[in-house]
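Study this:
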Amino acid sequence: MQSVVFGPVISRRFGVSLGVDLSPSVKQCNFDCLYCELEGKKAQNQMKEVLDLETLIQSVISSLKKNPKIDVLTITANGEPTLYPYLYDFIKTIKPNLPQEVSSLILSNGSKFGDEEVQKALHLFDIVKFSLDGVDKKSFERIDRPYRDIRIEDLLSGIERFASIYKGELVAEVLLVEGINDGIENIRSIVEFLKRIEIDRVDLGTIDRPPAYDANPLSYKRLLEIAKEFEGLYVSLPYRKENVNLVHQKYSKKDLIDLIARRPISVIEASNLFEDKALSYLEEFLFDKKIFIKKVANLEFYTIKD
């Protein structure tokens, strides 16, 4: 069996992360997404190979002792972690072993958020991140290729119910594929849904690793344009060194304030993409308290809201 715990690694969006893979040996997922970096495999509705709970707990506790200087413990899987039948028992046992400054995070596709047993486990996480690539049947089924009895209406209803009672930080990942789910109607429908559930943060991205199937990424320029649709939301964009030469944007003071008023900008995004003069304006705005820095799910944003 492959190692259950991996890292620490540097996560662009969550800091120093120690990862836990609840399905280390084989892909077990109720989606078979076009863009998945794992090899394509028919979707399944339950795990057939299940990690021994006690072995899992001891592996994680041992790794935490060896790696005390982390920002987040990230629960994931070669597939969907909420399929793990002992998720509640696992996080309930692990949570007291985390230092106070370390957040617990789960990365999910959101398909089981309406399940009360899964909700019970999710409530114990400090940060819950779910994927949302389409909110209409056609887009959802084309890109996420779900298990046969998963309907988009049920998935959205489950996410909405969970969001209404969850007390931690809720993050949505929207991954766009060229010609599949990047149409403006789908994007605006996603934005409408995320605003309705009062999402804390949106991680907007595209394919950046070789996908399981024939699928193409969006350009960074296109992502920047699409990000404008997420007005009023805290949106994180992916950063790659090759993107820097594309942008280094120039802004007047008024334009910069207007931009942040429409969409809070992550500190990392600003430092990588803005020209030096625009960055000096940000420092001036902070000093004058025209803008503030707010941390959302371990990521700092410039915002006009204190």
